[in-house]
């Protein structure tokens, strides 16, 4: 039997009349699939606890792809997300479920996830927190990119120049400025520091992370992104 460890529920779905199947992101074991027997029962003490964005202590047992929940308790109140922050939180959960392998430890990424949720709860603009987490996720996946040097010459990036992103190579100085793969040196320095002080830097960071994450996410649309777009359309009608 595993010991108690810190976790977050990424997603849950009903199983039988009273149980749940949980997709959990844990501090020491990464993503784990867990059967929570009886968790949906009327008298279950877990009925309100096994929700996304609630910090949990959990213990499970078993082998194979599906474990069995033995103990769970909330460490505190759920991180308060609403509006765009809530949809952004669902997005983080979805990309973790899609990209992170099961039973693979991502200790640093767990803390990056907690940091991202905290930032989403504290700031009205979710974009910087999302970009920082996506970059942290890419780092954890071993997607190493040098934002500080030109891949062609090895020289330090000049914030006034333009660079083209080449997959599996990096950023190469270029005169092309209108391409989707073109980034200014200022954009690259912001990506390196993960500090985005202008709207243009945030847009460039979003463009880069979408390019870099595409091979991991595949062609299947993200449900969280579709829900956010639907909400945006309704709010403007």
Outline of this structure?
By secondary structure, the chain is α+β, with helices and mostly antiparallel strands.
- According to DSSP, the number of beta strands is 8
Overall SS class: alpha+beta
Low-confidence stretches: none
Compressed to H and E, one letter per element, the order equals: EEEEEHHHEEEHHH
Gyration radius, in Å = 20 Å
Shape: elongated
The first-to-last residue Cα distance is 53 Å
Strand percentage lies at: 15-25%
Overall helicity:
25-40%
Query: What's the tally of helices?
Result: 6
Biggest sheet strand line-up: 1-2-3-5-4
Residue-averaged pLDDT: 91
| Largest sheet geometry | 5 strands, mixed, barrel
Task: Please tell me about this protein's structure.
- With 237 residues, this protein is an alpha+beta fold.
- Helix content is 37%, strand content 23%.
- The chain has 6 helices and 8 strands; from the N terminus they run βββββαααβββααα.
- Strand 4 (56-61) and strand 5 form a beta hairpin.
- Helix 3 (127-140) packs across helix 5 (199-217) and helix 4 crosses helix 5 (199-217).
- It is elongated, with a radius of gyration of 20 Å.
- It starts with a strand and ends with a helix.
- The mean pLDDT is 91.
Question: Helices, strands, pairings?
Answer:
Layout: E1 5-15, E2 19-26, E3 30-36, E4 56-61, E5 66-74, H1 84-99, H2 107-122, H3 127-140, E6 162-166, E7 170-174, E8 182-184, H4 185-193, H5 199-217, H6 223-236
Helix pairs in contact: 1-2, 1-6, 2-3, 3-5, 4-5
